[in-house]
């Protein structure tokens, strides 16, 4: 007997292409989750409209409307809980989270970052990978902990760096890999096949190969 799909909230700040990939993946029969809520801290995030077109509840909780980060986060957390969401996916959510918010969703909140962590946390990851002379680049899905981009790693995907790549086309190619990796990692978490134990991520042995993806999306 199949278990009921877990409700997932996706937090965005911009175009939301990773959110879109999660929404598409969740349409597959038997996917163990449903994207029940899309939240943005920015009212003009393009992904909000895209989510609504899919019939998903999509709300902006404008950070500017709150006196403090903590009050804004309280409103965000209440919206997630009111929608009955157990799992939170950060997908281009561009606001630092307080330790209190991270604790509230510990082991249930994941993020995608456009580098092979622990290399290149923070911004400008594509240019920094090029400047470092990397021959591969990649993306990482990890559990969110209090230190930005440092949480336990669930899954990673790798793409080659090609001669003549610049930050823009590398970013575009990597985005294709992100759209493969994030739904895969979310599925592992929803199924309990990847989980946080103490401060580490534990992944079932039979999933280990799938969590280390080699993706070479077509150059676009
Ligand atoms: C992605 O590159 C993601 O890895 C990073 O922010 C970007 C969001 O892009 N965290 P999108 O809004 O999902 O298109």
Walk me through this protein's architecture:
This protein has 6 helices and 10 strands. It has 220 residues and is of the alpha/beta class. The chain folds into 2 domains: 105 residues, Formyl transferase, N-terminal domain (Rossmann fold), CATH 3.40.50; 110 residues, Formyl transferase, N-terminal domain (Rossmann fold), CATH 3.40.50. The model has no long low-confidence stretch (mean pLDDT 95). Bound molecules: 5-O-phosphono-beta-D-ribofuranosylamine. 5-O-phosphono-beta-D-ribofuranosylamine (GRF) binds next to helix 1 and strand 5.
- The whole-number mean of residue pLDDT values reads 95
The level 1 CATH classification of the largest domain is Alpha Beta
What is the structural class? alpha/beta
The N- and C-terminal alpha carbons lie at a distance of: 42 Å
Report low-confidence residues grouped into runs of 5 or more. Answer: none
Give the overall shape.
Answer: globular
Bound chemical compounds: 5-O-phosphono-beta-D-ribofuranosylamine
Largest sheet: 8 strands, mixed
Placed side by side, the strands forming the largest sheet appear as 3-2-1-4-5-6-7-10
| Percentage beta strand | 25-35%
Q: How many individual domains? A: 2
Any idea what the radius of gyration is? 17 Å
Supply the CATH superfamily name of the largest domain. Answer: Formyl transferase, N-terminal domain
Helical content stands at 25-40%
The name CATH uses for the topology of the largest domain is Rossmann fold
CATH architecture of the largest domain: 3-Layer(aba) Sandwich
What is the N-to-C order of secondary-structure elements (H for helix, E for strand)? EHEHEHEHEHEEHEEE
Strand runs, count? 10
The total of helices stands at: 6
């Amino acid at each position: 007997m199949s278990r009921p799909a877990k409700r997932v909230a996706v937090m965005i700040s911009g175009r939301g292409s990773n959110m879109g990939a999660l929404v598409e993946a969740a349409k597959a029969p038997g996917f163990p989750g449903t994207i029940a809520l899309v939240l943005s801290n920015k009212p003009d995030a393009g992904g909000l409209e895209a989510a609504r077109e899919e019939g998903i509840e999509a709300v902006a909780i404008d950070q500017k409307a709150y006196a403090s980060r903590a009050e804004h986060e309280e409103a965000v957390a209440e919206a997630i809980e009111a929608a009955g969401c157990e799992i939170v996916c950060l997908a281009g959510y561009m606001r630092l989270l307080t330790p209190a918010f991270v604790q509230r969703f510990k082991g249930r909140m994941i993020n995608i970052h456009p580098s092979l962590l622990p290399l290149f946390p923070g911004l400008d990851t594509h240019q920094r990978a090029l400047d470092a002379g990397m021959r591969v680049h990649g993306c990482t899905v990890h559990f969110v902990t209090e230190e930005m981009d440092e949480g336990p790693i669930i899954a990673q995907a790798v793409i080659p760096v090609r001669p003549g790549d610049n930050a823009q086309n590398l970013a575009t190619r990597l985005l294709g890999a992100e759209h493969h990796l994030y739904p895969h990692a979310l599925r592992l978490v929803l199924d309990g096949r990847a989980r946080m134990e103490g401060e580490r991520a534990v992944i079932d042995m039979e999933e280990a190969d799938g969590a280390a993806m080699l993706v070479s999306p077509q150059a676009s």
